[in-house]
Each structure stands twice: as structure tokens, then as C-alpha cells.
């Protein structure tokens, strides 16, 4: 099968379009013929070596939309089922193998393109919003990187839930119109958001802040987090860890919660099925959509990575297999 292989850490040039063997399935696994995979910032971190060690050669990619090609004995799936999944061993390839717990059937009216845009960012966002952040209607919330995949989802979930005020940050104000169309009420840059949040809340601060950037953004977030507020930390796209003092937390009754979809896929995969069902319903009924910036061919994965790294995009970037 065709795949994009990586044998060393480095820039996008280390990605090689080549031939590899089709993987074999084991017990409680399925083989999926991939239609589309999404490109996530986690792929960039893994490619460059900023996300753990590399077991080379490796194939990048977290999620797919495609069709079941082969099942193991007593499977609840059948050949031909349309699914989204989190395969093991990467997704920049024509076929992928996934544990059945990480495979979810999709409605007939949901296109593979839209389905491929959603697995990682939509399931992650739903858990962040409802389970970790526990956002209420009366809250003022801040969504960092509001133009990204998770940000785009969080904004729409907030509007569906009737949240009082949604403040979004962007790295470039050229993305202001995009995030406002999604439902952001107030748009800020990373340099100005703390002051703007305090201004918008009469110096009370935001009730929930979603932070995937970390670094200095984490410190600034604590400057504008309300008493009893929650900072939800789920990434560090800045490449730097955020820091805080315990005195920033206990005396103000604020809390910091962390979440990783990767950790949950590995250690508590059963937690994802009910969430997948809910988000698939939201997409199938057009209550939520994820704008797709561009679709690349598998042989053009290098260009897809360069676009992600430029940060000059809005919504999701897909690879068509």
C-alpha cells in the first residue's frame, strides 16, 4: 500500500511517500480502507521529536474516515461499514488497523470529508466542554486558538449551549471574521486578551479558559481567571510549558484541570464511544460543521505540514488517500 513514512526527526522533508506492507489485524481489531485522514498539530510535534521518542520507521496521523475492509471473528462490525476511527500505527496510509473500541460507525448522510475533519477535535472538544470545563450558560469563557480545529468546535458547542459570552484569541487578526462567523463575541490577540477579558467582565474575570497554547499564555490566563474559575489545559502548541504558583490557585478557589485524548485512547477507550455518538449526531443534523481549509493528496503530505506550520489557515486540513 502507499503510505507516508518517516525514518528520522526533522522538518517536513523527512516525510517520504513510499510503499509499505498492508498491516495485519489481531483479535478485536478491524482493517480500514482509509478515505481521508486529518492533519493535527500533534503530527507536527511527533515529526519534529517534540512529542516523545520515535520508534522508526513510523507513520504519522491520529484519525481516519473510511470503510471496513476486514474484521476479526465475532466482530460487531462488517466489511463495508462506514466508520471513523483512531487506528494504531498511523493514518497517512491507504489502510489502517484499529481496535474495535476506537472505531465508530457514521451515518449514511455524513460525508467522508466532514467525518474525517471531526474525530480528534470533536470528541476532544466535547469532553473538554462538558466534562472537564463543565461550562454553564451564565459563564464568560475564553477559547485560545479559536480558529483552530478544537477552537472551532468549542466555539460552536458554546453557542449551541447558549453560553453568555465567548471570547476567542487568535494569532492573527486576519482570522477575526472567521471566528466571529463561528460565534465568537469578542476577538483578541494573545498579547491583549487578559486586559480585554477583565474589561468585558467588570474585572471579575472569565469563568472557564480553554488553553492549548501554554507558555506565557497560561500565566496571562491566570491573570484574568475569575474566583472559582477553571483553567482547562490540553496542549502546548507554543512549545513551552505553562507555569503557575500554588498560591495562584488555593487562595482564589480556582482550579486547573488537564486532559489528553491520547492518554484516554490508551487507558480508558470505553469513555469515548458515548461521546462519539453525541458528536456524530451533531454533525449528521448539521448543528455543527467544521470548515475544511484544504484537502491534500497523500503524496503531498509535506505541503500539508507546511501549511499547518505556517498557521495561515482556518479550520481543518485533510489528506485524501
UniProtKB/TrEMBL annotation:
UniProt entry tagged with the keyword Cell membrane: no
Q: What SMART domains is this protein classified in?
A: PKS_ER
InterPro entries, sorted: ADH-like_C, ADH-like_N, ER, GroES-like_sf, NAD(P)-bd_dom_sf
Q: Name one Pfam family in it.
A: ADH_N
The protein's matches in SUPFAM superfamilies, at most eight in alphabetical order, are given as:
GroES-like, NAD(P)-binding Rossmann-fold domains
Q: List the molecular function annotations (GO) for this entry.
A: mRNA 3'-UTR AU-rich region binding; NADPH binding; quinone reductase (NADPH) activity
Q: Which UniProt keywords apply?
A: NADP, Oxidoreductase
Tell me the leader sequence span. none
Q: Which Gene3D superfamilies match?
A: Medium-chain alcohol dehydrogenases, catalytic domain, NAD(P)-binding Rossmann-like Domain
Q: Where is the Enoyl reductase (ER) domain?
A: 10-319
A GO-annotated cellular component:
cytosol
Q: Which PANTHER family match?
A: QUINONE OXIDOREDUCTASE PIG3-RELATED, QUINONE OXIDOREDUCTASE-RELATED
Put simply, this protein is called Quinone oxidoreductase
Amino acid at each position: 500500500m502507499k503510505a507516508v513514512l518517516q525514518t528520522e526527526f526533522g522538518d517536513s522533508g523527512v516525510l517520504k511517500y513510499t510503499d509499505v506492507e498492508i498491516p495485519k489485524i489481531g483479535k478485536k481489531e478491524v482493517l480500514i480502507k482509509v478515505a481521508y485522514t486529518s492533519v493535527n498539530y500533534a503530527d507536527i510535534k511527533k515529526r519534529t521529536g517534540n512529542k516523545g521518542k520515535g520508534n522508526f520507521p513510523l507513520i504519522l496521523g491520529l484519525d481516519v474516515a473510511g470503510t471496513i475492509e476486514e474484521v476479526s471473528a465475532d466482530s460487531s462490525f462488517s466489511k463495508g461499514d462506514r466508520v471513523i476511527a483512531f487506528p494504531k500505527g498511523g493514518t497517512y496510509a491507504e489502510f489502517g488497523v484499529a481496535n474495535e473500541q476506537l472505531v465508530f460507525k457514521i451515518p449514511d448522510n455524513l460525508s467522508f470529508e466532514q467525518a474525517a475533519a471531526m474525530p480528534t477535535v470533536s470528541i476532544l472538544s466535547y469532553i473538554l466542554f462538558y466534562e472537564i470545563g463543565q461550562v454553564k450558560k451564565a459563564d464568560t469563557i475564553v477559547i485560545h486558538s479559536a480558529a483552530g480545529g478544537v477552537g472551532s468546535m468549542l466555539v460552536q458547542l458554546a453557542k449551541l449551549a447558549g453560553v453568555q459570552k465567548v471570547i476567542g484569541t487568535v494569532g492573527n487578526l486576519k482570522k477575526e471574521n472567521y471566528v466571529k462567523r463561528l460565534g465568537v463575541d469578542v476577538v483578541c490577540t494573545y498579547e491583549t486578551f487578559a486586559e480585554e477579558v477583565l474589561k468585558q467582565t467588570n474585572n471579575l474575570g472569565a469563568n472557564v479558559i480553554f488553553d492549548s497554547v501554554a507558555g506565557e499564555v497560561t500565566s496571562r490566563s491566570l491573570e484574568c481567571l475569575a474566583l472559582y474559575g477553571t483553567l482547562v489545559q490540553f496542549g502546548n502548541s507554543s512549545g513551552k510549558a505553562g507555569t503557575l504558583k500554588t498560591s495562584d490557585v488555593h487562595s482564589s478557589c480556582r482550579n486547573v484541570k488537564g486532559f489528553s485524548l491520547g492518554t484516554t485512547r490508551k487507558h480508558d477507550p470505553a469513555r469515548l464511544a458515548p461521546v462519539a455518538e453525541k458528536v456524530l449526531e451533531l454533525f449528521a443534523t448539521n448543528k455543527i460543521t467544521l470548515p475544511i481549509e484544504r484537502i491534500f493528496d497523500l503524496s503531498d503530505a509535506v505541503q500539508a505540514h507546511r501549511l499547518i506550520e505556517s498557521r495561515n489557515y482556518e479550520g481543518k486540513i485533510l489528506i485524501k488517500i
